[in-house]
Each structure stands twice: as structure tokens, then as C-alpha cells.
Design brief:
Strand content: 15-25%
Number of domains: 2
Distance between the termini: 18 Å
Bound molecules: 3-isopropylmalic acid, manganese (II) ion
Largest sheet: 10 strands, mixed
Number of strands: 14
Order of helices and strands: EHEHHEHEHEEEHEHEHEHEEHHEEH
């Protein structure tokens, strides 16, 4: 089969990690008889420099016309002084909204070989850790009404947290469907002791849970959830939460694995379409040094094969190539420990491709 992938290399280490992910996809192509055609499009800082806009309309059009989107990372100090809605990061919000990517899957798993990288005590992650944060991505305070007004306390600014029942229902279904393929547990995280929007969230998630009698549902307030993630991370299987809570908790969850350079993500629509990107950012400080870890982007390409292109065997081949890489003692700079073999970004891509 031939697949059209819109590719956004982005800024910082983005182009370097993307080059390795496409290398590995090409290896998949030769082994399984597929062709991946890459349509390179601009977004983020590079797009600002070249077109004056962080998300050129051609990028959205090409993305919509493609089978999936693969993205490196956007942003960097060069654009940090631009006003809020002209910053490179704004491109991500635009892509999410324009493409209808309401479901963000952020797995946080500890690879056995990298268990010692976790900052948590060994007994807390004993036997591995495998959590997926399902974050609502196109609603809530990120996209609610915002503005400025005069108050008794002087000039003020506001952002509204608003969720419709339907927005909660569809993300809850994604979480429950995911749990059915995993350990059948969903933890919904909200702030229902204070927020009206959270009380609606909790009620709707509970209603949806009736469609999934096999899945065990519990609810946590976000402050407690943040604490439980480091106190008893094995409690969690699938976490479902709002846009802003998911932003915060997915960073926390990624950090307990100790190796953010390993974590992929998927942002999905109701159908199969999706955008895939590493959880780490553009890391401008190490761009061009060969220290970037391309494994998160390679694993993101694997998620693309699994969730959008329906190529499960090919996706398994990527996951197992990454495991072989780790098992053979190869490491990138960020996960290096004495006694292992440190490889550069391109050497890592070559090695993983050779294991396909
Ligand atoms: C993320 C990022 C983005 C977000 C920013 C860059 C807009 O932190 O993908 O988690 O807040 O969603
Ligand atoms: Mn974030």
C-alpha cells in the first residue's frame, strides 16, 4: 500500500528526530511492501521565519489531505518574545482544532532496561509501569472564551473552562475503549469539589461507564491525582482528564518514567486520522549535537501505523526493534549509563532500522 504522510519537522531537534523516524518507516516499507510518501510542510518557528505565520493554511490543507501527520517539535528561544498568539506553540493549538484532534493519548511506560532512570523508589515501579493519559485536547480552558476586563482590583484577564456533555462523552469513550484493550481500569481526574465544569465531567464519565460494565472506574480530584501518581503510580491504567489537567499530569507521568526522550504521543479524531509526535519538546540547547533521542519519534511513527494506518504487525515490528536496541545495550546520550553503548541520533536511527 502507499500512504501519504504530512511531515512537520519543526524546530530545534525536530528535523533530526524526524529524519530517523522516516528512516525507520522506510525500513518498515521495504520489509512489508509499503510506500510512505512524505509531504513536508511548515509549522512553528520555521514557518514564522519563512512565511510570517506559525501555521500556514497550506500546512492545514496538506495535513487534511494526508493519511496522517507526523510532527517533530516546535518552538525555541528565537521566537520567545513574540506575542502569545504568534508564538510557534500556537501552531499546535491550531492543528489540533483545525484537524479535530480531540483525543490525546500519552502513554507513560517504564522500559525494563531503563527502570533505574525513574526518580521513584524501585519498589514503586517494581514489575514495570504502563499508564496512558487520555487528555481532552480541543476544549476546556485552552479554547474557551478569553479576554480582558476592568475589575474592582484593576485591569484583569480571564479564560473560561467550558465543557459540553458531548465533548466529555466522546473523550470518555476513547478512554474506556482503550481500557478494554488494556487492564480495564479508568481513573477520571477532575476538580468536582470546586468546579461546575468538573461536576458535569464526572456525571457524564459515570454515565458512559455504564456502557463498559467490565471496566472499573474511579474518580480523583486533580490535587490528589497528582499526588497518587508519585505515591502509588501502579494504581493507574488509563487516566482520562481535561485539556489543562492532562497537560500538567502527562508531564508528571512522563517524568516518573525518567526518560522523556522515549515517550510517543497520538492525537486522534473520531475516525482513524491522527497526528503523532514525541512528548519531548524542541530542545534547542542540544540541536545539532547528535545527542537528541529519536526513539520517541520512532515510537510515535509506530503509533501512527497502529492507530491510523491499521498496520498492527508493522507497529509491533517498530516496538520490538526499539526493545532490541535497548536490550543490546545501546543508548542515546539522555539515557546513557556506564556499561552501555552511547550512540548518536543518526546511529540510533540506523541501528533501529537494522532491527526491523
Ligand atoms: C503540550 C504542550 C502544549 C500544550 C503547548 C506547547 C501549547 O505543552 O503539548 O503538552 O499546552 O498543550
Ligand atoms: Mn504540555
Amino acid at each position: 500500500m502507499e500512504y501519504n504522510i504530512a511531515v512537520i519537522k519543526g524546530d530545534g531537534i525536530g528535523p533530526e528526530v524526524i529524519a530517523e523516524a522516516t528512516k525507520v518507516l522506510d525500513a518498515i516499507g521495504s520489509r512489508f511492501g509499503h510506500t510512505f510518501s512524505y509531504n513536508y510542510v511548515l509549522a512553528g518557528g520555521e514557518a514564522i521565519d519563512e512565511t510570517g505565520r506559525c501555521l500556514p493554511p497550506e500546512t492545514v490543507a496538506t495535513a487534511k489531505a494526508s493519511d496522517a501527520v507526523l510532527l517533530g517539535a516546535v518552538g525555541g528561544p528565537k521566537w520567545d518574545t513574540l506575542p502569545g498568539d504568534e508564538r510557534p506553540e500556537r501552531a499546535l493549538l491550531g492543528l489540533r482544532k483545525e484537524l479535530g484532534l480531540f483525543a490525546n493519548l500519552r502513554p507513560a511506560m517504564v522500559f525494563d532496561e531503563l527502570a533505574e532512570a525513574s526518580p521513584l523508589k524501585a519498589e514503586l515501579i517494581d514489575g514495570g509501569l504502563d499508564i496512558v493519559v487520555v487528555r481532552e485536547l480541543t476544549g476546556g480552558i485552552y479554547f474557551g472564551e478569553k479576554g480582558f476586563k476592568e475589575t474592582e482590583m484593576g485591569p484583569a484577564a480571564y479564560d473560561v473552562e467550558l465543557y459540553s456533555e458531548e465533548e466529555v462523552r466522546r473523550i470518555a469513550r476513547v478512554a474506556f475503549d482503550m481500557a478494554m484493550k488494556r487492564n480495564k481500569r479508568v481513573t477520571s481526574i477532575d476538580k468536582a469539589n470546586v468546579l461546575e465544569s468538573s461536576r458535569l465531567w464526572r456525571r457524564v464519565v459515570t454515565e458512559v461507564s455504564a456502557e463498559y460494565p467490565e471496566v472499573e472506574l474511579d474518580h480523583m480530584y486533580v490535587d490528589n491525582g497528582a499526588m497518587q501518581l508519585v505515591r502509588n503510580p501502579k494504581h493507574f491504567d488509563v487516566i482520562v482528564t481535561s485539556n489543562i489537567f492532562g497537560d500538567i499530569l502527562s508531564d508528571e507521568a512522563s517524568q516518573i518514567t525518567g526518560s522523556i526522550g522515549m515517550l510517543p504521543s497520538a492525537s486522534l479524531t473520531n475516525g482513524n486520522f491522527g497526528m503523532y509526535e514525541p512528548v519531548h519538546g524542541s530542545a534547542p540547547d542540544i540541536a545539532g549535537t547528535g545527542k537528541a533521542n529519536p526513539l520517541a519519534t520512532i515510537l510515535s511513527a509506530g503509533m501512527m501505523l497502529r492507530y491510523t494506518l491499521g498496520l498492527a504487525e508493522e507497529a509491533d515490528a517498530i516496538d520490538s526493534a526499539v526493545r532490541k536496541f535497548l536490550n543490546a545495550g545501546y543508548r542515546t546520550a539522555d539515557i546513557y549509563t556506564p556499561g552501555t553503548v552511547s550512540l548518536t541520533t543518526t546511529e540510533t536511527g540506523d541501528k533501529v532500522a537494522s532491527f526491523i
